[in-house]
Write a structure and sequence with these properties.
Elements (H helix, E strand, L loop, with lengths): L1 H9 L13 H5 L1 H8 L2 H4 L13 H13 L1 H4 L11 E6 L6 E5 L2 H8 L8 E6 L12 H10 L6 H5 L16 E6 L19 E15 L6 E15 L5 E7 L3 H12 L11 H20 L2 H20 L3 H7 L4 H8 L3 H5 L3 H14 L5 H24 L21 H7 L2 H9 L4 H4 L5 H38 L5 H6 L1 H120 L8 H4 L11 E2 L12 E2 L1 H53 L1
Parallel strand pairs: 3-7
Antiparallel strand pairs: 1-2, 1-3, 4-5, 5-6, 6-7, 8-9
Length: 708
């Protein structure tokens, strides 16, 4: 049994509650167990290599597994170790504070093992490139520091909140965990005399959040971010040795602590020569963290309040009476007003045209692209209708461009209202825009989204302040409960220091509570303003729907007018088509007559002219002159008496001339018909013979082509 327990305590994976009384061999081998736990192969198993953990074994094992699973996002990889940096600020007995920067694991191990005793006060700082980047150290460097100082296992929960976290911030997780070994009868369980550790002391860890302002180098505009810091502290109640582990992405807390160790009297090496002075220095260091977590909330909440006012002032200062007067119209009345008479549309004057143009401008809501498109479409229809009326000269009923519904209907209008207002109201009305949608333009989805973002920031701010206050209150209660168990030297020598610590911590807690109350009130005001903002947004949508209805009605009227115009045009086209068809029929008949006349002329004309020419008596002298002007009446068939005898007007028939005419005319006509009949009969046969010849000749030609 004796050897078994000693073997378990030498194992780096050993874990127990820590309150069991060990054997004598185990007590004397604490330093050997410590050296075994800090071997290079065992130190990386922290927190499983803790000598005397006060957590259960399965809890320590779970913490070790979580740290291993998240090591890739928490610590630098092997290729980025050139950026590794661990800063150590420490003061030994009667030596001032010195700062050491360890950039390699070997340098860090050598520094921790350089002295036989722990320093009087040691600060170890871990930082990162920014809040979403891994810590500037490797896992081996981090676990070496944790294992050397035997950091409590619950500190892993706070470490997991750092590093590369693409999935979020765990919604501002905060915690305060503590352990203590105050029983002097069993202090040897945790003691390592070779390092100056008495085994009697307190250990706790916590994390806090605070807003930090950064200025973008590109835009030169300030922006706020919520940043966290985690701290571990252990204090030896017998030797007064203190260890601080600080994890913060930037150098804010490191610079403050280093500056305080140089300037603050309570943190000077002279004050660390006594146990009471060491405890007072530990309390003062706590206040550096506490003041950091509560110092900028007023400015941060003020920026949120300013952003809220910039949006809500537009809703609170809008002239409601002006909006009501401009929007005081009825949609049915508006539609009836739009249905004007043809005389109103027939010849608009330039003044009326300008009125219509201004009405279209007021009618289309500038902040709505859909309404703008509607207005452009309607304007095009108006131009089409006007052009059609001007070109056709018709006075068909058409709907004019929309009148401005914002001018009101009936006796209620801005002009009428301005006549009844006071002079101051008149000046205010003239200063305000005459378009209700111009007043409601700033109430859009973007502003509503901004209000939601501000409200989310206020909720987060209120939550973090409450969590910070609870952590501070837990730390204060923790010290109040343990103060009576501290050594008499601390209780008497640090009485006023502890009262000052309690007073300042309570003051920070009260400040956070007041800021919470102010933030809660601001959230209520934001809810009221958001509701008012939402009402204006709904009003804007309702009025837009009314304008959509009026615009749709007027577009329907224009479409009906265009339909009528198109129907009239269709009827005209049908009439033109009917007339064209009639003309075509007549032309067809006339063409047939012309073809018949042409055929007859071609058949009879040659014989007729030849017969007329040969049927005349021989007149050799004038024969050539009469060839082109002879007719049937000039052929000699009919003759008139040239005397003055009234009976001589009747033509005299010449039969011999007619016989000669018929002989030539009939013969030539018969010859013409014979030639035509012969050609009509012979031509098909000639074509058939030619095709047959070509068919017979084709193989011969092909054969000659192949041979050639």
């Amino acid at each position: 049994m004796f050897r078994l327990e000693a073997h378990l305590r030498h194992s780096p994976h050993h874990s127990d509650i820590g309150t069991c009384k060990p054997t004598a061999e185990a007590m004397f081998n604490s330093y050997d167990m410590f050296k075994n736990a800090n071997k290079p192969e065992n130190s990386e198993t922290w927190p499983a290599n803790l000598i005397h953990p006060q957590s259960f074994r399965h809890t320590v094992k779970q913490n070790q597994e979580e740290l291993e699973q998240n090591s890739r996002r928490l610590f630098l990889s092997e290729r980025n170790l050139k950026h590794a940096l661990v800063v150590i600020r420490e003061a030994s007995d009667h030596q001032n504070f010195l700062t050491t920067e360890c950039k390699t694991l070997e340098h860090l191990r050598n520094h921790l093992q350089a002295s036989h005793n722990d320093p009087k006060c040691r600060h170890v700082f871990f930082k990162a490139e920014h809040s979403r980047r891994p810590l500037d150290c490797s896992k081996a460097m981090f676990t070496s520091v944790m294992s050397w100082h035997q950091i409590m296992a619950p500190f892993v929960d706070l470490v997991l909140g750092f590093g590369n976290q693409p999935s979020g911030k765990e919604f501002h997780y905060t915690s305060f965990r503590h352990e203590a070994s105050l029983d002097q009868n069993h202090s040897d369980i945790f003691s390592i005399p070779e390092l100056g550790r008495s085994g009697l002391g307190i250990r706790h860890c916590f994390n806090l959040w605070s807003p930090e302002e950064t200025v973008s180098p590109k835009s030169n505009t300030p922006s706020w971010s919520l940043r966290q810091a985690a701290a571990y502290h252990s204090f030896d109640l017998k030797s007064g040795r203190a260890v601080w582990i600080t994890i913060k992405a930037n150098d804010v807390l490191k610079k403050r602590i280093i500056g305080a160790t140089d300037t603050c009297d309570a943190l000077q090496v002279e004050a660390l020569s006594e146990l009471a002075g060491c405890f007072s220095a530990a309390l003062t260091t706590h206040l550096i963290f506490f003041e950091w977590c509560g110092e900028r909330w007023r400015k941060y909440n003020g920026s949120l309040e300013k952003d809220t006012s910039n949006i809500l002032d537009k809703a609170n200062n809008i002239p409601v009476h002006k909006v009501e007067s401009l929007l005081d119209y009825d949609i049915e009345t508006l539609i009836k007003t739009l249905q004007t008479t043809p005389e109103t549309i027939a010849s608009p004057t330039p003044e009326r045209a300008r009125t219509w143009q201004s009405a279209r401008t007021a009618y289309s809501v500038p902040s709505s692209p859909t309404l703008g498109k509607f207005s452009r479409t309607f304007s095009g229809l108006s131009r089409i209708t006007t052009t059609t009326m001007n070109s056709t000269g018709q006075s068909s009923r058409a709907v004019p461009p929309p009148m401005s519904p914002l001018l009101g209907s009936g006796p209620k209008s801005p002009v009428a209202d301005s006549d009844t207002d006071d002079e101051e109201d008149d000046e205010e009305d003239r200063a305000q825009p005459q378009d209700a949608f111009q007043l409601l333009r700033n109430f859009g989805i973007k502003q509503l989204q901004s209000l939601n973002c501000i409200k989310a920031d206020l909720h987060t701010s209120c939550l973090i302040m409450r969590l910070n206050a609870e952590v501070l209150n837990d730390v204060l209660n923790y010290y109040n409960e343990l103060f009576d168990s501290f050594p008499d030297e601390i209780k008497t020598g640090c009485k006023y220091s502890f009262l000052e610590f309690s007073r300042r911590t309570t003051s920070i807690i009260r400040f956070l509570e007041k800021e919470q109350a102010r933030t809660s009130a601001l959230m209520l005001l934001l809810d009221d303003g958001k509701e008012l903002f939402d009402k204006f947004l709904q009003l804007r949508h309702i009025e837009q729907n009314k304008l959509f209805t009026a615009n749709a009605h007027q577009s329907t009227q224009h479409m009906q007018n265009l339909t009528v115009e198109m129907a009239n045009s269709t009827l005209n086209m049908e009439q033109i088509a009917t007339s064209t068809h009639t003309i075509a029929e007549k032309a067809k008949k006339e063409t047939s007559s012309i073809h018949f006349i042409t055929v007859v002329t071609l058949l009879f004309l040659p014989g007729t002219f030849i017969a007329v020419r040969l049927g005349l008596p021989p007149l050799p002298l004038i024969f050539n002159l009469l060839t082109c002007s002879q007719t049937i009446f000039g052929s000699g068939l009919f003759q008139w008496n040239d005397n003055d005898d009234p009976e001589g007007r009747i033509p005299i028939w010449k039969g011999d001339h007619f016989d000669l005419f018929m002989k030539w005319c009939g013969g030539l006509m018969a010859l013409t018909f014979s030639i035509w009949i012969l050609w009509a009969f012979v031509r098909p046969r000639c074509q058939a013979r030619w095709r047959a010849y070509r068919q017979r000749q084709k193989p011969v030609d092909e054969e000659e082509g192949k041979t050639g």
